[in-house]
Amino acid sequence: MARTALVTGGTRGIGAAISVALREAGYSVAANYCGNDEAASRFEAETGIPVFKWSVASYEACVAGLAKVEAQLGPVEILVNNAGITRDGMFHRITPEQWREVIDTNLSGVFNMTHPVWPGMRERGFGRVIIISSINGQKGQMGQVNYAAAKAGDLGFTRALSLEGARAGITVNAITPGYIATDMVMAVPEKVREGIIAQIPVGRLGEASEIARCVLFLASDDAGFITGATLAANGGQYMS
Ligand code: NDP
């Protein structure tokens, strides 16, 4: 029987590419989203992948959302924590609200979603938790103290939790994409984007499908010996 995968923020950008790739590889897929109903409805109509609306920033909403997904598709065996936001600003200008929003979604959101999924994975003796962190959580980035802190936190989360899942058949891994051509990056002014591309050794932005293929590998049985790892997909921009 097909394994069930839940992709947070799975209706747009990198998440949409991940949802589609998992579906094409034979998984039964649920795509979560938060606010953009129009994009989610379009995605559902085009792909046939069911969409589920809740905010990963709320623990209670994640518990309720997971229950709905599992009632429709069965136990979630692959969890892709992809949902993420930016609220950029130089540190001396960012507000506590900008700090909290990014931490709540990009770091606490990973806890909120993984925690309710975890007991079932332990009971069944199988699970794949994949976290989409960021190159900027590794190297830092001006104007992104909140985002870099959250994404670096995701890497600590990945390493610590991987130890707890290891004997239970659950792998926990992170992917750190470099700059990928999605709404998040295309929203940056063109001049800034040109500057970004100039810093990427391969000379181009990444494609969402390239991150999706990393997820497919980490979700597969072939990746059973890989846990606690950080898979960098950044065109050579940062090597740790
Ligand atoms: P997009 O802005 O294109 O899409 C973000 C997705 O996350 C949307 O589906 C959005 O839902 C969803 N989302 C946002 N907040 C929440 C929330 N609170 N609860 C549930 N879903 C939410 O982002 P990208 O595809 O560019 O980024 C995806 C991930 O990859 C993020 O974690 C990002 O930090 C990371 N990343 C991106 C890079 C890039 O270059 N693009 C580089 C490195 C990392 P809705 O449609 O309803 O708004």
TrEMBL record:
Provide the alphabetized UniProt keywords.
Oxidoreductase
- CDD domains for this protein: BKR_SDR_c
Task: State the PROSITE patterns in the record.
Answer: ADH_SHORT (PS00061)
One short Pfam name that applies is adh_short_C2
Give the GO molecular function terms. Answer: acetoacetyl-CoA reductase activity
* Transmembrane residue ranges: none
Kindly list the GO CC terms recorded for this protein: cytoplasm
Ketoreductase domain: residues covered: 3-178
Entry annotated with the keyword Hydrolase: no
Please name the GO terms of the biological process aspect recorded for this protein, alphabetically. Answer: monocarboxylic acid metabolic process; poly-hydroxybutyrate biosynthetic process
Q: Which family does it belong to?
A: Belongs to the short-chain dehydrogenases/reductases (SDR) family.
What's the name of the protein?
Answer: Beta-ketoacyl-ACP reductase
